[in-house]
Write a structure and sequence with these properties.
44% helix, alpha/beta, seven-stranded mixed beta sheet, single chain, 240 residues, 7 strands
Length: 240
């Protein structure tokens, strides 16, 4: 049973409402909205287990993540550090790892309704964008199946110099940073935005038509307060 904080739309009502808006621009969060996995955290754990980063780097991010869980490191701080973790690694290696990770750990958790929605919005003429606080390597890989190109993806990224990852952050789109990233891309009031967590609230607030998809309880409470439509996709069993 879902919380009674807001009455969720049926799949039919969700599709007819969204497609009926005929939005010129549609913006999607990724983790929890398009698929069920928290890919930023899961890729970090997986890549450490695969030996992609050094023992020293894995010990460092472990201690930082513990501080984050204790409320001593911010959401934006940890999202950036989870990408800075790969300093010194060849980008080709990370991209290859991201492809293997997504295929084996995330693909099965894609919400079929959201895959279909992105396709139908594009067919209807919408320019589809994605915004994520997860690293761009995993997000770009995951969005291949949604046919969202890299130049329409705003994700956490660091500078890459001569093929090697550095620790210099370029962007960390989380919380207010999501709205800021869209604004920098020339999208100040997107026609429609989809998000699942309180970290999407800032970009949902600037949308002409915000939708809470698969929302956490915190976002569902905000959606009820704001009168935002809520939709729960099919709960997929994913590869663990």
């Amino acid at each position: 049973m879902h919380s009674s904080l807001a009455t969720p739309l049926s799949t039919e009502a969700f599709f007819s409402t969204v497609l009926g808006l005929r939005p010129p621009i549609a913006v999607f969060d990724c983790d929890g909205t398009l698929w069920g996995e928290d890919t930023g955290y899961e890729f970090m754990l997986w890549s450490i287990a695969e030996g992609i980063v050094s023992r020293g780097a894995s010990d460092w991010i472990d201690s930082r993540y513990r501080l984050y869980r204790a409320g001593k490191v911010s959401e934006i701080g940890i999202c950036g550090e989870m990408v800075q973790l790969y300093e010194g690694v060849r980008e080709t290696e990370i991209r290859h790892a991201a492809a293997v990770f997504f295929r084996t750990r995330v693909l099965a958790s894609i919400f079929p309704e959201m895959l279909r929605l992105v396709d139908e919005l594009r067919t209807g003429g919408a320019n589809v964008w994605a915004v994520s606080s997860t690293n761009n390597w995993v997000i770009e890989e995951g969005l291949r199946g949604f046919n969202i190109p890299a130049d329409r993806i705003l994700a956490t990224r660091v500078e890459v110099v001569e093929g090697t990852v550095t620790s210099k952050l370029i962007d960390v789109p989380s919380d207010e940073g999501k709205a800021l990233a869209l604004n920098k891309a020339g999208i100040s009031a997107p026609a429609i935005v989809f998000g699942n967590s309180i970290h999407d609230a800032a970009m949902l607030e600037i949308a002409q038509n915000p939708f809470a998809v698969n929302p956490t309880q915190q976002l569902q409470a905000l959606a009820a307060k704001r009168g935002w439509p809520v939709f729960f996709p099919t709960e997929n069993h994913h590869l663990g």
